[in-house]
Amino acid sequence: MPSASELPAAPRHRLGGLFRAVAILAVAAAVLSFPSWAPNPYILSAGVVVLNYAVLSTSWNFVGGFTGYISLGHGALAGLGGYATGLLVVRAGLPSFVALAAATLLVAAFAVPVGYAALRVRGASFVIVSIALVLILLLVFQSWASFTGGSRGLVVPRPFPGLLRPEHHRVFFYLFAALLAVALLVWWLVDRSRFGLGLKAIREDEDKAESLGTPTFGYKLVVFVVSAGFTGLAGGLYALWFGDLDPVFQFSILTGSYLVLMALLGGVRQLFGPLVGALVVGIGLEYFKVEFGNTPLHLAATGLLLALVVMFMPDGVLPALGALVDRFLRPAQSSIREVTAAELRDRGSGPPEGDRPADPPASVPVGAPDGRSAEERS
Amino acid sequence: MPSGALLFQSVILGLLLGGLYALLAAGLTLYFGIMRVVMIAHSAFLILAAYLAWWSHARLGVDPLLSMVVTVPLFFGLGVLLQRLLLARLRPVTLTMMSVLLTFAIAVLIEGLLGYAFSGTQRRIQLGYGSASLGLFGARIAVVKLIAFGLAAVALLTLYLLLKRTRFGWALRATIQHPDAARLIGIDTDRIAGFGFGVGLATAAVGGTALALDTTIYPSLHWHWIGPLMAIIVVGGLGSVPGAAVAAMLLGLVQSLLQIPLGTTWAQTVFYLALFATLAFRPQGFFGGRLAQRF
Amino acid sequence: MTGQPSGPPGPATSGTGSPATTGAGSPATTGPTSPVAGGTGSPPTSGTGSLATSGLTKAFGGVTALDAATVEFRHGQVNALIGPNGSGKTTFFNCVTGMIRPDSGRTSYRGADITRRSPHAIARAGIGRTFQLCRVFPRMSALDNVLAAARPDGFWSQLRGARRRVELDRARGWLTRLGIEHLADVEARNMSWGQQKLLELAGVLMSGPETVLLDEPAGGVNPALLDRIGALVRELNAEGRTFVIVEHNMDLVMSISDHVVVFDRGRPIAEGPPAVIRSDERVLGAYLGV
């Protein structure tokens, strides 16, 4: 009986794992071969934009997915990475990729005091600070025109001046793909580490995690800084690719909400959730931009979609799909949770929680606490 | 060195502005008290009310103040619906984060719809008394600013009386302070919470109308307001209406004074600096606010 | 600092807390400290080696939840903290564990002042606790719930996999010992109340505390499970862990505790062995409102 929940789980994992592996390989192959079958440079550049979104929302998910803290300000961190890279190239004359590395570190360092203010108290203060971050950076970068170029924008020289436009897109497509791979890898590593388990404990119940000895503030701060670093790096890479920065677009509250929408839609607890969300929302955004141009209805649709996801699908599509796949693969068996519920019903009777009427007398004979389990196991 | 008259004028303007801030922050404080919800859409509703005031003046030729006859009950109803149909249905465990996201989504939705309905063009109400001003010890104060302040003062006073003198106010305060106990003594806390949201949103209707009198409005204007309002409720100590009012007056005053040497744009940063400093060094706020610890 | 007070709890362990891996700083390991003879309500002054508060005060608004509470719990004993509802017991726990900052007063543990430390630092100093309304991580499996409580040894170890053999064995050991090993892969939210209580306890024990504060372990628990928890507490105590238990169930209190402290209106009004407390008229007065 004790192992009832373990036995049926194994084949499910194997089949599910196989399915996962195939799916991942297929997506990876599709992504990597995209530049060779993209019909024209415009589509290729749209691919770069979508990959950029995928990197950004995966970076966002370091905070949002593990700790449950939702940031609406990651767009601003990306913008800061972009501006830092651009300014380091233009004003300090650094080589493009040196500037990119420096900008990444700058954004990560910038995230320390911001995180300090935002994460000391738990709850909504983090969201508020993240929104304030967008607003204040927009204010500063627009007003401090002598340094940032203000509303006239900032032109960032291309790192590979010799390349033609399609080649330029292709190179950056692979750069973004590589960055995405690194971000996913790090997310996966954190996910299976003790650090990750601590972060998830924070998401579940922060007071409880703290009372078990997890330094919650430190954990949150570290993961926020990591997240900011990746976001800044992606923003900087975007600046090098796009070559023209405007504060209104770099520090847009909308970018941040796109990232949240993508991650939430895909599923914040899943490694590939933000990527899936970015593919759906990013492609949708690009499509609508081509079809309808930039209209206020973009905003309205984003708002509506976000509200719908929050209300009806806060866990995202991937978990829903996973449940579906499960049902196909194991039609006879219902989900593991239901097995347990049934098992509980078998064992239990009597209110208010007659969960274990049978074992208590036998189970803890004082002095020989462990004998029972040894017996039961054999 | 600015002249005495200029300084005096800035002080007066700062206090008038602070009054408006106080009204708007009161709504936010109320929501937070009732449900621990940070209502990002509050300022979007504010702009919506401002647009309705502008529209009724420009299209129907009615005095913008009269639009409140419609907008205040309308917003009250919307507030009740918002709480009962949307916020109350979120999972309690993730309420804090999801409610912020949901109200954020509503703000974006309102902004998009406003842009669709009225275009992104900047709008301004042209009133007969729009350019009139009063001279007071060398300071010139626009009449519309006085009207706006007057509206805010009347609305705040009404809110105060509503909370302190009526049975509904008593039930609402009980709900805020101790929902479980309130339920035990027979208060229908769900209903009361819905009405509380209605009252909060009604303050946005008044505030939006007051705002429309004297400001150029455009759909994305609400982002300029949400930052300062957040700063006010955090500095005031969340959950404390008087705290928010004091913080509002104080920050309005400081902003107004800083405009003399810095100009309007940079003077806005005072709110963000106050927000960051408060959260970093005194997260419970400066003027009480028992609930702030859980913020 | 991160000493593991007791060895792995699994089937192999026999009674005594082993002097396993003592990190720096952990004063004395946790072998069962000599049980103070079950004696009289001794003056709360005796030396270190105990959890003690002096003048602990906390007010919420106008309500004084703790009123200059001075208490000492002796090491190696099962201490009970009883008192009528609202007498400040849970607030006391919250202050001691750093979840609430007291307005004034001090808390010391084994001679060190822990008043202003953060909750996780206090936990790492060796004080574990459960919550009145049992708190587990709802969307994590039982096994992960327990693993999440494992104490990392050093900074870089936190980047290691969460499911390493050593921890996995310890975690499974605790689940086994509490009789819920068959639920290892079940998400905590799908477990019954009683199972969640056991799981919470397993997590706290995994974090390796020398002193365990239990907030109403008997709350909402059926009689059979109650006996089990009582027996478990005695066992764990015999292995060297100190307990402080807030409890309303007098049968449980009287049967398992060595020392009882009675709270009323935010301060202790009586203390002593169960037999003495049972007949103390101040206690009756406090409960009956005389």
From TrEMBL, chain A:
Residues 343-358 have a biased composition (Basic and acidic residues). It is found in: Cell membrane. The keyword Transmembrane applies. Residues 340-378 are annotated as: Disordered. The chain crosses the membrane at residues 18-37, 43-63, 70-90, 96-119, 126-145, 171-190, 221-241, 247-264, 271-288, 300-325. It comes from the Bacteria. It is a multi-pass membrane protein. Keywords: Cell membrane, Membrane, Transmembrane, Transmembrane helix. PANTHER family: HIGH-AFFINITY BRANCHED-CHAIN AMINO ACID TRANSPORT PROTEIN BRAE (PTHR30482:SF10), HIGH-AFFINITY BRANCHED-CHAIN AMINO ACID TRANSPORT SYSTEM PERMEASE (PTHR30482). This is Branched-chain amino acid ABC transporter permease. It comes from Plantactinospora mayteni.
UniProtKB/TrEMBL annotation, chain B:
The lineage of its organism: Bacteria, Bacillati, Actinomycetota, Actinomycetes, Micromonosporales. This is Branched-chain amino acid ABC transporter permease. It is a multi-pass membrane protein. It comes from Plantactinospora mayteni. InterPro entries: ABC_transp_permease (IPR001851), BCAA_transport_permease (IPR052157). Keywords: Amino-acid transport, Cell membrane, Membrane, Transmembrane, Transmembrane helix, Transport. It is found in: Cell membrane. The chain crosses the membrane at residues 6-30, 37-54, 66-87, 99-119, 139-163, 192-213, 225-253, 260-281. Coiled coil: none annotated. Its main location: membrane. Belongs to the binding-protein-dependent transport system permease family. LivHM subfamily.
From TrEMBL, chain C:
Residues 12-53 have a biased composition (Low complexity). Keywords: ATP-binding, Nucleotide-binding, Transport. The keyword Repressor does not apply. Residues 1-11 have a biased composition (Pro residues). Residues 51-290 form the ABC transporter domain. Residues 1-53 are annotated as: Disordered. GO terms for molecular function: ATP binding. It holds the Pfam family ABC_tran. It comes from the Bacteria. PANTHER family: CONSERVED COMPONENT OF ABC TRANSPORTER FOR NATURAL AMINO ACIDS, CONSERVED COMPONENT OF ABC TRANSPORTER FOR NATURAL AMINO ACIDS-RELATED. This is ABC transporter ATP-binding protein. It comes from Plantactinospora mayteni.
